[in-house]
Write a structure and sequence with these properties.
Layout (H helix, E strand, L loop, with lengths): L31 H19 L5 E4 L4 E2 L10 E2 L3 E5 L13 E2 H4 L5 E6 L15 H8 L4 E6 L4 E8 L2 E4 L8 E3 L4 E10 L2 E9 L9 H35 L8
Parallel strand pairs: 2-5, 6-7
Antiparallel strand pairs: 1-4, 2-3, 4-6, 7-8, 8-9, 10-11, 11-12
Length: 254
């Protein structure tokens, strides 16, 4: 007789503290962690606006458990980055070790995979095994992005009527993600001392969402610019005063 798991009996199922939080594999390249941090840092203030109650979660190379298997890791996918709306930031005062669908119910709004190989793994539609199939048919994530750094390209899929449809970029070569109210695209620039086409967020008007570090740099540059402008104005005023005194104008009487 086939054993059937009663998903209505919540206490009979393992939670995030009982499931493995790693499959023991190495991070595939040195870009993955800074890329995830860049995505998180730059959108954090936007998420705080969307969720003033703090009810949201971000996963970075963290497992999403979607079915019971043996070993447990076979029933999980670990996107490089994902966002879930309207869930508590912690569970019983603990940071999540993983995201367990039968425990939390709400699916992520978007998952992002960074391609290290040829992209075959990220586009695999094999039922119950392939990443693409799992995100589309099992977890049912509304938006799925595949970022290929070597090709400087990003694909974004939208779940429509139960199937992923490849999205078209807008005039800025960005992809609009409605749940977040932002656009996703590629930005060529320097981050963490590395020049790459980084995956980044923009607002609906096409303005790049900065990291806190970039905000500080922008404010310093703005302050330096204002100081330079004030110094130039003072120099012009000093020269004018000197010229008037040469012409015999008593400025003290003006």
């Amino acid at each position: 007789m086939t054993n059937v798991v009663d998903i209505t009996t919540k206490t009979s199922l393992p939670d995030h503290t009982q499931l493995p939080d790693s499959d023991g594999t190495f991070v595939k390249n040195f870009q993955e962690h800074p890329q995830s941090i860049l995505l998180t840092e730059s959108i954090w203030s936007k998420l705080e606006q969307l969720h003033p109650d703090g009810q949201f979660a971000i996963g970075q190379d963290s497992g999403i458990y979607w079915r019971i298997t043996e070993p447990p890791q076979r029933g999980a996918e670990a996107p490089d980055w994902f966002y879930v709306a309207n869930v508590p930031s912690t569970l019983d005062g603990q940071m999540r070790r993983s995201y367990v669908l039968w425990q939390e119910i709400i699916a992520p709004s978007i998952v992002i995979e960074f391609v290290s190989g040829n992209g075959e793994e990220e586009r695999d539609q094999t039922p119950y095994k392939g990443k693409f199939w799992v995100y589309e048919q099992a977890i049912r994530v509304p938006f799925y992005a595949i970022y290929e750094v070597q090709k400087s390209s990003v694909e974004v899929y939208h779940l429509l009527e139960g199937k992923y449809q490849l999205m078209s970029a807008n005039e800025r070569e960005h992809y609009y993600i409605p749940p977040l109210g932002v656009e996703l695209g590629l930005w060529q620039g320097m981050y963490k001392n590395v020049e790459l086409p980084w995956l980044r967020w923009w607002d609906e008007q096409g303005k790049l969402l900065p990291t806190p570090e970039e905000v500080v740099i922008e404010e310093k540059q703005r302050a330096d610019s204002e100081k330079q402008r004030a110094d130039l104005e003072k120099q012009r005023a000093d020269r004018l005063e000197a010229k008037l005194r040469e012409l015999g104008v008593n400025l003290d009487e003006l």
